[in-house]
């Protein structure tokens, strides 16, 4: 399955969740439901996976925690905030570079229309 095929499934699931629940819930609620929905699609989904950062040949366990990683190909960074700040897309791009993955989706469920809350971030795709 390609990154784009995975992202289509994710966007569809986010749309269904947003239609059913709307904006305004905690990020953790959307994360739990999206995790459940993606698992129902028989996708390999890792939740809150701690990923190390390597610096000067040293493995630093103080890396970051990815919200969701799907099929070891796509990182999802979920938000439920009034406004996506400029640092959020940059943060996801850094995650992509550290993991050497090519596609990330920044998803803000706190939008009136979920399509306005989804941003694709690419790393050499």
Automatic annotation (TrEMBL):
Organism of provenance: Polaribacter sejongensis
Lineage: superkingdom: Bacteria
UniProt name for this protein: GxxExxY protein
Pfam families recorded: PDDEXK_3
């Amino acid at each position: 399955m390609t990154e784009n095929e995975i992202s289509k499934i994710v966007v569809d699931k986010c749309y269904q969740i947003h239609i059913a629940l709307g904006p305004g819930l905690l990020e953790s609620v959307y994360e739990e439901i999206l995790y459940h929905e993606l698992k129902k699609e028989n996708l390999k989904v890792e939740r809150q996976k701690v990923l190390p950062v390597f610096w000067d040949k040293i493995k630093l366990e103080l890396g970051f925690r990815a919200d969701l990683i799907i099929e070891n190909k796509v990182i999802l960074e979920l938000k439920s905030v009034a406004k996506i700040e400029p640092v959020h897309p940059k943060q996801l791009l850094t995650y992509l570079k550290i993991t050497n993955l090519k596609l990330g989706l920044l998803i803000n469920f706190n939008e009136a229309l979920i399509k306005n809350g989804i941003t694709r971030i690419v790393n050499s795709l």
